[in-house]
Each structure stands twice: as structure tokens, then as C-alpha cells.
């Protein structure tokens, strides 16, 4: 089967209100042939995990510019594992200092995309690393 | 863009049995996985739907349709807490369009429905149209069957933003709610055939905007003035929809809408099985069509089939003769 689009949840956890980047990425991945679920601003980790479950997504992309990534991202990863979605690819983007990246990778983040990342390179990474499906 | 096949080795029947058992026991991830299989049209989906179909038929299927920006998602989000406080479980299938160019889609209906994450009895699933015309996805009906079978009381099917003739939801739902925004058109728009004709309930949303009451009264004048049936006249008749005014964003008029939906649901149940028979026909004919197509494209026949299709493209054979030849090829086995 070559015609099943990869399904991606783009979510903004926490309290910052800057969603332009998330929207541009959502639209860019749409143009790359992905099915993108966008959930809007100010999502709790629980809301994000619940959406990932109900939508049975392959990828969860988290956009954070508030600095709260070291709290919110591990929580989302833990919830996904608890609900049986440990195989979902989690990526993060926004403003994330390089020093935090190794810790985030340890808790289960597959990639951190900083400012300047092209949509093409995000799409290529997701295609190469997404889980296998039934 | 392929999702690689994880488990060609796991037999579809066994996998479906496992997923269906778990979903019926309340496992929401298993339910989500069945819905994915249904969308992807996998062998697991067929095996799961065979198991689930006998359990479906109890839910009230409500279609919510209307033009882009009329407020469908906002209205659905306003319905959910009221239905929940009445103790009813709710599933939502929210359909957004796939790109005809890339096949990608932006599914944005959840933005207005994220407040119910802690509630197991609310299940929201976004779905892309994947090339299907008519306002729904190719698997929306089957997905509703799955949600019905696992016990949701009410299933809200939100279509893509529709134009005048995407009326497929009316066949897929027990009750069709059509949303209009104020000042969207004059009385002539209201008497054109199509979307408004299939409404069981018309909601003029954004009722706090100027012109809402006038739009409602125009619709009432044009849509409700359907002549009563003479004895012995059994020609198809347009419906006589309820016309309501609501403001989904504030919740005004939403209780009245739920009352109207419930009233229509009871009427439809009393009116008998015509709608359900029409839905069954549509489902079965679609499967027959898929099976015929798959047989004509199998390893044995695919070469002949493609050669006949090419003959039609080159105008050497007409399409009717081509169809007859293909059907004859099937009969030969």
C-alpha cells in the first residue's frame, strides 16, 4: 500500500500564544501529502495525548516557544507510552536550546527542529522514521 | 508516502478479532486502530466490520453540514457538553477535504473540540475526504458503523464545508442538520434544489448577527411551504424542515436544537425502515462495485481489462460495449 498518507498531529502545549510556526508547518506538511491534525493553542499534555490516541496518528509534533519544553515534552512522551503509543514518533520544534536536546532525546523525542529547518527536511525525516503500520 | 506494512504475517482475521474484542471492552486505542484500518480499507477492516455490523444500528446518526465558515465545528462543540450532561455518550466524525493535488489534508475541526480530553464518553475522529466527492470521506459510513457498534449513543458526522449539492450526508445520517449563516442568500437561493432540500433541521447560526431572524423567516417561507400530500399521491416530496436560530459560540438555541434532533430521531424511527434500507443499499452496492473492480484488476484479468480501457480511451470501443465485455469476462470466471 503506497497511498496511505502519514497522519501527523501538530500541537502547541503550554501557554505561549505563538502559533504561526505551527500553522506554517501544518500547511507545509499538507503540501507534502501528509494528513495533518491541528489542535490549536494552549493544549495540556493530556489533551495532546488524547487527540493522538483518538486520531491514531503516526507522528506528534510539538511546537513550544515558552521555555516550558523540559516539563511539557517529557509528560507528553510518558502519556503516549502509558496509553500504548510508545511507537508514535515525537518531534519538537520552536525555541529549544541545544543543551536541552540530549535530555529530550532521552525521554523519547526523535528529533528537535529549530528555527531555519525547512519543511522538506522535516517531511523527509518523518517519512524515513515513521513507525510501520498494520 | 507509504506507511510500511508492519504485519503481513499477522493474519487479518486474528488481528481484527483481537481489536474488536478490545474495542468492545472499552479500549479506545483499539477503537482508533479499527477506524484507521477502515479508512485505509485494509483486510483487517473488512474482518472487523463483519464482526461489528450485527452490533450496530442503535446509535442516532446526526449529520451536520453547511457552507465553510457557517459554524459546524463550533456547533458540534456546543452540542457535546449538553449531550454529556444528559448522560449520553457522543462520537464525532469530522471530515475535512484532501488536497486534489498532493493528497495531503489539514484536519482542523478538533481546534474547537479539545475541551473533552478527560471524558472517555466523547470520542472525536478527524477524517480526510481522500478524493471522495459528496462531502464525506470514502469510509465515513463504515466508521460510523464502528462507533455505533461499540456503543456510542449519538454520532455526529460533520461534513466538509459544502456547496449546493454535496448531499451525501443525508443518506448516511438518520437526521440531517444544515447550517446557514445570516445573509448568505436571498429567497431564490433558498428554493434551489440541493442541500437545503435534504435538511431535516435548518439552523441559522450566528443568530446574534444582524439579519439572522430575517434569514430564518425567508427560509421558513420558502422551505416549509411544501404542499400537503393528496391521498394516493406517492411521488417523492421534499422534507418540511424545522427552522431554528442558534448562536453556537454562546450556546443560545442549542438546547432547542437538541430537542429538535431528538424529535426527528423519534419520527424517523417510527416512519420505518426506508432510510435504513437506502443506506444499506448504498453500502452494499459500493462494496459490489469495489469487488467487481478488484476482480477485473486481479492477476488473471488485469491485462485484458487494461487493454479494453485503452480501447475506450482511443475511441475504438464505446464504454457500454466495454462494460459488457468486462462483465462477460467475470461471468466466464
Outline the structure in words.
The complex is a heterodimer of chains A (134) and B (333). Chain A is built from 5 helices and 5 strands, in the order βαβαβαβαβα. Chain A has 134 residues and is of the alpha/beta class. Chain A has one domain (7-128): Rossmann fold, CATH 3.40.50.280. In chain A, helix 4 (101-107) links the parallel strand 4 (89-94) and strand 5 (109-113). In chain A, helix 2 (45-55) packs parallel to helix 3 (69-82). Chain A is globular. Chain B has 333 residues and is of the alpha/beta class. Chain B folds into 3 domains: 9-55, no CATH class; 56-225 and 237-271, P-loop containing nucleotide triphosphate hydrolases (Rossmann fold), CATH 3.40.50.300; 282-331, no CATH class. Chain B is built from 12 helices and 8 strands. A 7-stranded parallel beta sheet of chain B has the order 4-2-5-1-6-7-8, with helices on both faces. In chain B, helix 2 crosses helix 3. Chain B is globular and about 65 Å long. The mean pLDDT of chain B is 89. Classes of the chains: A alpha/beta (134), B alpha/beta (333). The A-B interface holds A 1-7, 26-27, 29-40, 43-44, 46-47, 49-51, 53-56, 58, 83-85, 127, 130-134 and B 1-7, 10, 15, 28-29, 32-33, 35-37, 40, 42, 44, 98-99, 102-108, 110-112, 114, 117-118, 123-126, 128, 130. Strand 2 (35-38) of chain A pairs parallel with strand 3 (105-107) of chain B.
The amount of beta strand of chain B, in percent, is 5-15%
How are the strands of the largest sheet of chain B arranged? Answer: 4-2-5-1-6-7-8
Helix content of chain A: 40-55%
Count all strands of chain A and give the number.
5
Short description:
The complex is a heterodimer of chains A (134) and B (333). Chain A is an alpha/beta fold.
Which secondary structure elements does this structure contain, and how are they paired or packed?
The complex is a heterodimer of chains A (134) and B (333).
Chain A: E1 7-11, H1 20-31, E2 35-38, H2 45-55, E3 59-64, H3 69-82, E4 89-94, H4 101-107, E5 109-113, H5 119-129
Parallel strand pairs in A: 1-2, 1-3, 3-4, 4-5
Helix pairs in contact in A: 2-3
Chain B: H1 12-24, H2 28-40, H3 43-52, E1 60-65, H4 72-85, E2 90-96, E3 105-107, E4 122-128, H5 140-149, E5 154-158, H6 168-172, E6 175-180, H7 187-191, E7 201-204, H8 212-223, E8 242-245, H9 254-271, H10 274-296, H11 302-313, H12 319-331
Parallel strand pairs in B: 1-5, 1-6, 2-4, 2-5, 6-7, 7-8
Amino acid at each position: 500500500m503506497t497511498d496511505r498518507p502519514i497522519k501527523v498531529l501538530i500541537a502547541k502545549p503550554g501557554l505561549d500564544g505563538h502559533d504561526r510556526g505551527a500553522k506554517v508547518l501544518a500547511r507545509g506538511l499538507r503540501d507534502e501529502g501528509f494528513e495533518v491534525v491541528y489542535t490549536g493553542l494552549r493544549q495540556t499534555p493530556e489533551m495532546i495525548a488524547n487527540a493522538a490516541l483518538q486520531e491514531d496518528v503516526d507522528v506528534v509534533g510539538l511546537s513550544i516557544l515558552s521555555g516550558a519544553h523540559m516539563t511539557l515534552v517529557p509528560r507528553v512522551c510518558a502519556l503516549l507510552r502509558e496509553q500504548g503509543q510508545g511507537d508514535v514518533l515525537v518531534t519538537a520544534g520552536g525555541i529549544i536550546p541545544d543543551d536541552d536536546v540530549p535530555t529530550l532525546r532521552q525521554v523519547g523525542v526523535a528529533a528537535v527542529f529549530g528555527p531555519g529547518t525547512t519543511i522538506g527536511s522535516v517531511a523527509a525525516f518523518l517519512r524515513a522514521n515513521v513507525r510501520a503500520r498494520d | 508516502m507509504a506507511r510500511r506494512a508492519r504485519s503481513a504475517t499477522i493474519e487479518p482475521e486474528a488481528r481484527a478479532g483481537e481489536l474488536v474484542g478490545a474495542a468492545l471492552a472499552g479500549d479506545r486505542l483499539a477503537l482508533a486502530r479499527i477506524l484507521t484500518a477502515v479508512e485505509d480499507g485494509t483486510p483487517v477492516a473488512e474482518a472487523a466490520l463483519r464482526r461489528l455490523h450485527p452490533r450496530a444500528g442503535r446509535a442516532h446518526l446526526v449529520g451536520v453540514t453547511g457552507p465553510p465558515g457557517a459554524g459546524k465545528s463550533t456547533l458540534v462543540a456546543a452540542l457535546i457538553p449538553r449531550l454529556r450532561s444528559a448522560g449520553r455518550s457522543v462520537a464525532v466524525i469530522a471530515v475535512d477535504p484532501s488536497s486534489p493535488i498532493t493528497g495531503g489534508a489539514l484536519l482542523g475541526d478538533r481546534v474547537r473540540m479539545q475541551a473533552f480530553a478527560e471524558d472517555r464518553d466523547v470520542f472525536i475522529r478527524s477524517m480526510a475526504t481522500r478524493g471522495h466527492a459528496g462531502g464525506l470521506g470514502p469510509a465515513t459510513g463504515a466508521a460510523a458503523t464502528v462507533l455505533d457498534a461499540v456503543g456510542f449513543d449519538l454520532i455526529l458526522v460533520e461534513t466538509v464545508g459544502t456547496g449546493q449539492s454535496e448531499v451525501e450526508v443525508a443518506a448516511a445520517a438518520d437526521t440531517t442538520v444544515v447550517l446557514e449563516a445570516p445573509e448568505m442568500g436571498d429567497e431564490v437561493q433558498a428554493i434551489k434544489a440541493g442541500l437545503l432540500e435534504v435538511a431535516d433541521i435548518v439552523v441559522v447560526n450566528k443568530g446574534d448577527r444582524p439579519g439572522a431572524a430575517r434569514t430564518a423567516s425567508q427560509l421558513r417561507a420558502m422551505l416549509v411551504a411544501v404542499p400537503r400530500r393528496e391521498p394516493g399521491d406517492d411521488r417523492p416530496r421534499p422534507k418540511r424542515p424545522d427552522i431554528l436560530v442558534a448562536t453556537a459560540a454562546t450556546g443560545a438555541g442549542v438546547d432547542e436544537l437538541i430537542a429538535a434532533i431528538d424529535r426527528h430521531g423519534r419520527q424517523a424511527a417510527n416512519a420505518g425502515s426506508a432510510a435504513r434500507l437506502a443506506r444499506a443499499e448504498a453500502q452494499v452496492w459500493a462494496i459490489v462495485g469495489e469487488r467487481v473492480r478488484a476482480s477485473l484488476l486481479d492477476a488473471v484479468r488485469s491485462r485484458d481489462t487494461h487493454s479494453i480501457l485503452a480501447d475506450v480511451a482511443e475511441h475504438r470501443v464505446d464504454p457500454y460495449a466495454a462494460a459488457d465485455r468486462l462483465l462477460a469476462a467475470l461471468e466466464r470466471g
